[in-house]
Design goal:
Layout: E1 26-32, E2 47-53, E3 56-58, H1 69-82
Antiparallel strand pairs: 1-2, 2-3
Length: 83
């Protein structure tokens, strides 16, 4: 055992339990795009938006960030409409 634990803990259940999430559980986060420090760069393009469900980042295929909050919300609306 790589962790040198004296024993392993095992949990078993009779049936599989899948988490049930709603659109309200998703948090949209944003950080300033540090590599673009041009003073006259429009504010609406200075941020990227990311969608998180707990500590898991949601993606649309290879796309992990959106240029506007509206684009990110449209992705989430589509995602939860499919469920």
């Amino acid at each position: 055992n790589a962790c040198n634990w004296p024993e392993q803990i095992k949990i078993s259940r009779d049936e599989l339990i899948f988490p049930s999430f709603t659109r309200k559980d998703v948090v949209i986060k944003t950080w300033q795009n540090a590599e673009r420090q041009i003073p006259d760069y429009e504010d609406k393009y200075r941020y990227h938006y990311y969608a998180y469900l707990g500590n898991v980042q949601l993606t649309d295929g290879d796309k992990t960030k959106w240029d506007s909050k509206a684009e990110c919300e449209a992705f989430l609306d589509k995602l939860f409409a499919e469920v």
